[in-house]
Write a structure and sequence with these properties.
Number of helices: 2
Largest sheet: 6 strands, mixed
Order of helices and strands: EEEEEEHEHEE
Strand content: 35-45%
């Protein structure tokens, strides 16, 4: 019956829910210390690869999967712990965009401004990022998870 098939868009991902994140103190990374930076006075800027320096936002406040022709758009909203986050993106938590045991995991990340100010209004700290996934990429996905520092939002197929 079509109603119970994967073709029916109502069988796609339902409402998301929030889960706490277990923190590992050893895995903490200081965002002020550059990783893999090549030094030297005469280094070539031609061969320089721009490294994304984003870090996970404080918490993920929303996760929506929107069905579009040929796939879906994963849109996550989060709240940063500092004002002025920029360069917001959903970064795959695993190599490529391959699901692990049916779970496709992303981190909602943002770059910090060079001049840090104290956190003010939630509106100033709210960020949104999205990524398009094709039907082929979604074929083996049962759960989509987006992680922040303090929580993760997950949504699964019905």
């Amino acid at each position: 019956m079509i109603r119970d098939s994967r073709v029916n868009p109502f069988n796609w991902f339902g409402n998301s829910r929030s889960d706490p994140i277990e923190r590992d103190a050893r895995a903490e990374v200081n965002p002020l210390i550059p990783v893999n930076e090549r030094g030297g006075l005469f280094r070539s800027t031609r061969d320089k690869v721009v490294e994304y320096r984003g870090s996970p936002v404080d918490q993920v406040s929303g996760l929506v999967i929107e069905r579009v022709p040929g796939g879906a758009i994963v849109r996550a909203t989060g709240i940063s712990s500092y004002d002025g986050p920029y360069g917001v993106q959903l970064t795959p938590a695993t190599e490529g965009t391959e699901p692990v045991d049916g779970v496709l995991t992303y981190r909602l990340e943002a770059e910090r401004p060079s001049e840090l100010r104290r956190a003010t209004s939630t509106r100033v700290r709210t960020v949104t990022a999205a990524v398009h996934l094709s039907d082929r990429e979604l074929r083996d996905v049962r759960v989509i998870r987006v992680e922040g520092v303090r929580n993760a939002q997950t949504t699964s197929r019905r």
